[in-house]
Design goal:
Elements (H helix, E strand, L loop, with lengths): L19 E6 L2 H9 L8 E4 L7 E4 L1 H4 L9 H7 L4 E3 L3 H18 L3 E5 L2 E5 L10 H16 L3 E6 L2 H8 L7 E3 L5 H6 L11 H9 L5 H5 L3 H8 L2 H8 L16 E12 L2 H22 L3 E10 L4 E7 L7 H15 L6 E11 L24
Parallel strand pairs: 2-4, 7-8
Antiparallel strand pairs: 1-6, 1-7, 2-3, 5-6, 9-12, 10-11, 10-12
Helix pairs in contact: 4-5, 10-11, 12-13
């Protein structure tokens, strides 16, 4: 390449055109409960434990109007919505519905990358029914899901994964959004910075201090400036602000770990507060472990101090972790060895890894699809 030449990405152009759909079920766990129990329909419902250190695993849209959301302590959710109805999770029912939904996906394409029971990317550039329009495929999939499961799904259609995921959240619930070739950068620049995956409350605060509130503000910054202020994360922000993402849809990707973390609005330091926080994270992560049907041998505790220094400690067993109680006990043992902490933390996370091969039902790396339809591709 001659000096001064640029790549299509550097010029803000889209990579070779794929047709990607991101499907996200609407309030999946809670919707399954409302479907199966007519008395819950139209009422604020939370899936999870109602007492003690219980955590909301999912909330219906009626509950979300009160500010109830997943990963929220149940006592907080009940305070926000006194009429909130708690139901115990039924992962067998959720997995059964998820299996029906994935069968619908595979009726259209084998290039399906599940992210969870209720969410997946699909590459329909070349699809089994030979339909040129990705929008039409997405409409058919949503109609089939409603007919076969009595549940609703939202979908985003675009030429890369980043944009498709943004689009699926644009018109929720039971909606669809299409971002066509050439429209990505303009769409992203209209969004508040909080919509960018990976930008949490603290990141949003930092960006506000730097005068960044929207994608347009971010797009006005060059790579050097972003690297100076955000380190390696700056490259992601540079590309995201321009709607650039060349990751392929990876069918049957290997699941390496299952975990979760919490970033705090106020730094935490006291031992009992940290132990309580760890219990809350255990509840969240074990729900995900059961949902993925995962079994693993290594538990890793992650802490990020208030100076952004990251620290991890892990402990492995010669066999898989037996149950939630053992998972929690190992996490607490690691934390207790670190107490008292040298300074407050802004984030805590817990992960199960060294998973048994196939435990998540996703074993092989799968195929990618680089077919290009050009700017005339039918979306």
């Amino acid at each position: 390449m001659s000096e001064g030449a640029t790549t299509p990405e550097d010029r803000g152009e889209a990579p070779p055109t794929r047709k990607i759909i991101h499907v996200d079920m609407d309030a999946f766990f809670a919707s399954v409960e409302q479907r199966d129990n007519p008395e819950l329909r139209g009422k604020p419902v939370a899936v999870g434990g109602a007492s003690g250190r219980g955590v909301v695993a999912a909330a219906s849209y009626e509950a979300r109007r009160f500010g109830v959301k997943s990963a929220m302590p149940s006592v907080t959710a009940k305070r926000l919505c006194p009429d909130l109805i708690f139901v115990k999770s039924r992962f067998d029912a959720y997995r059964e519905a998820s299996d029906q939904i994935r069968a619908i996906f595979r009726h259209h394409t084998d290039l399906v990358e599940p992210l969870s029971l209720d969410e997946a990317y699909l590459d329909v550039t070349v699809n089994k029914l030979g339909i040129a329009s990705a929008t039409q495929v997405a409409q058919m999939i949503r109609q089939e899901i409603r007919a076969k499961t009595r549940l609703t799904a939202s979908a985003g259609v675009s030429y890369n994964k980043f944009l498709a995921k943004l689009a699926s959240d644009q018109n929720k619930p039971d909606g669809m959004c299409v971002i066509r070739p050439g429209e990505g950068a303009a769409f992203v620049q209209t969004l508040p910075i909080r919509r960018f995956h990976g930008v949490g409350p603290r990141g949003e605060e930092k960006m506000a201090r730097l005068g960044i509130a929207t994608g347009a503000d971010l797009a006005a910054k060059d790579r050097a400036w972003l690297a100076q202020h955000f380190g390696s994360f700056g490259e992601y922000l540079y590309r995201a602000a321009r709607g650039i993402d060349d990751r392929p849809v990876r069918a049957n990707r290997i699941r390496k770990s299952v975990g979760g973390e919490r970033t705090f609005s106020v730094d935490r330091h006291e031992a009992e507060e940290l132990r309580t926080t760890l219990d809350e994270i255990v509840e969240i992560v074990w729900e995900r472990i059961e949902r993925a049907q995962a079994r693993g041998r290594t538990v890793t505790l992650k802490l990020k101090y208030n100076d952004f220094q990251l620290m991890t400690r892990a402990r492995s067993l010669p066999r898989s972790v037996a149950d939630k109680a053992e998972f929690a006990a190992i996490g607490h043992a690691i934390l207790d060895e670190l107490l008292p902490l040298p300074r407050p933390i802004r984030l805590m996370g817990l992960t199960l890894s060294n998973l048994e091969r196939g435990a998540s039902g996703e074993e092989d790396e799968g195929r990618s699809n680089d077919a290009s339809g050009g700017q005339l591709a039918l979306f």
